[in-house]
Amino acid sequence: MFYSFARGLIRILVWLFNGNTHYENREAIPDGPYVLVGPHRTWWDPIIFALAASPRKFAFMAKAETFHNPIIRWIISHANGFPVDRAHPGPSAIKTPVKILRKGDLSLIMFPTGSRYSSEMKGGATMIAKMAKVPLVPAVYQGPLKFGQIFLRKRMTVRFGAPIEVPAGKLNDDLFKQVNQLMEDAFTQLDYEIDPNFKYVPDTHKYEEEKSSGKV
Fold it and tell me: Which strands make up the sheet holding 81-84, listed edge to edge?
């Protein structure tokens, strides 16, 4: 109930403040649960992804630190968020989303790089999708990267790609590399289909700061 209310409210706010959102190739989205994956470019792209893929509802990972505040913890929990210690992720970082996906009511939003300052692909999304026996659905966001630009009514676009089935076989480095490459290729193709001249460059300096502090 809270998720639906919050999504409706956010949809209205996005329309009022921007009014220039475009969701492309939604017909590629499967009917059942899946892991929605994309390059992490802003702090609000998961929100735009969730709006774009509506009426499907999503769960998502949130930094464990955000759950320290009881009010924020209540909001995130009721919006289907669950805590993950980014510095020291435990077994629950995999088991919790797998359990959610197997129930079938929710899909999951994940960013394979883990941070919007990195282009280094990790294997968490692949592992979760394989264990839950659901596909990965690639999507990309192009639009304002600074919050103030949203109010300038600059175009925000989300485009979905064909589902990626995780191949059969053991979860090893070769499988992770194979699926990571499929996701990277899909992101590149989707970006090109939206705008052939688009190029996103992660803030590698910020990534090194996060890496040295143990946040990634």
Answer: 21-24, 156-160, 136-142, 35-37, 107-110, 58-63, 81-84
What are the backbone dihedrals phi and psi of residue 80, each rounded to the nearest 5 degrees, phi first? 75, 25
Closest CA to 112 of 178, 34, 183: 183
The number of beta carbons lying within 10 Å of the beta carbon of residue 33 is 23
Is the pLDDT confidence value at 104 over 60? yes
**pLDDT confidence of 90, banded at 50, 70, 90?**
confident
Distance between CA atoms of residues 86 and 211, nearest Å: 11
pTM of the model: 0.87
**Model pLDDT for residues 107-132, shown as the tens digit of each residue:** 999 999 877 777 778 888 999 999 99
Average pLDDT on 185-214 reads 76
Q: What is the b/e burial string over 141-160, where b = at least 16 CB atoms within 10 angstroms of the residue's CB?
A: bbbbeeeeebeeeeebbbbb
Residues in the chain, overall count: 216
What pLDDT is stored for residue 207 in this prediction?
46
